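Archive entry. Fields below.
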Amino acid sequence: MKASQKAPLHVCVTGAAGNIGYALVFRLASGDCYGKDQPIVLHMLEIPTGMKALEGVAMELSDCAFPLLHGMVLTDDLNTGFDGVNQAFLVGSRPRTKDMNRADLIKANGPIFVGQGKAIAARAASDVRVIVVGNPCNTNALIAMHAAKGVSPDRFHAMTRLDENRAKAQIATKAGVLPGDVTNVGIWGNHSDTMYPDYVHAKIGGRPATEIIPEESWFQGDFLKTVATRGKAIIEARGASSAASAASAAIDHMAALSNGTPEGQFTSMGVCSDGQYGVPKGLIFSYPVAACNGEWKIVEGLEHGAFAQQKIAATTAELVSERETVADLLG
Ligand SMILES: NC(=O)c1ccc[n+]([C@@H]2O[C@H](COP(=O)([O-])OP(=O)(O)OC[C@H]3O[C@@H](n4cnc5c(N)ncnc54)[C@H](O)[C@@H]3O)[C@@H](O)[C@H]2O)c1
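PREDICTED_STRUCTURE:
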């Protein structure tokens, strides 16, 4: 089908003039997420102080003459931004400053996601799917999900695909294979340094990764530490936080949700728990999931040893505590 024959998807990116937004919108417009035959209309939402920079982003998008970019909406108004939107990337949020701890950040950003959740419920298309990238992304997704009355909770996701991609890259380098040979690396829990990258069920070329890398001490030591602290390492090296890799992971997540995961494989998504693996119901918790046509299912029946159980308990406790911190926003 020609690009002009499909109806355009309406895709919203919040914080579109920020670092991740700037990396994300060009890849969306070039067809990296929804395919080279799927036109899009980009809704780019900013705060008033970001609007001038956003105009510059729009000029550049226009100058790329992307055949798939059928329109742009630039706005600082939530209702306009989410009007008729099928796919929403909630990236914009307040960055953490030196004087803030994680709880301060949660409190500062929470209200943003109340407003956005309400606007999504009021204005988005009935098939809307939402990925929250802005940190703390699990708890921000929880807040948006609660605020979006009438929208099914399964539409709200938090992004842990960057952690998964980081873990795959570490395993590939260690094994001397290509990242594409590494599959089934599930991230469990929170997008924070408590998350657990499950190496036990990971595969390299279809074989257990632990058979090819028989060093449990590497997995439990350097591997885990590198994945958990990669964000900090990038800030130290680049002088700015990860942006292109975060945008790429957001595209991977939404493409997997739309196009599906290959048979027998899974990816990682922060989704609303229904109590699977003993996680309290209603938490936005990252699990291994299989996806198909916009729907997803948590992969069940994976067995965990004592190390994994202890890691999963710790990340669960952190998410429960974050939920308590924002209890007043979960009306
Ligand atoms: N989940 C992940 O794996 C992951 C990875 C990297 C970064 N992040 C998070 O993504 C977020 C964005 O990172 P960045 O580097 O692009 O930050 P940035 O500061 O460069 O950009 C944020 C943009 O959001 C805008 N913004 C702020 N509040 C907004 C609001 N209420 N509505 C709309 N726009 C708003 C700002 O004006 C700015 O342009 C941060 O919270 C960061 O911690 C998440």
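CURATOR_NOTE: The chain has eleven helices and 14 strands.
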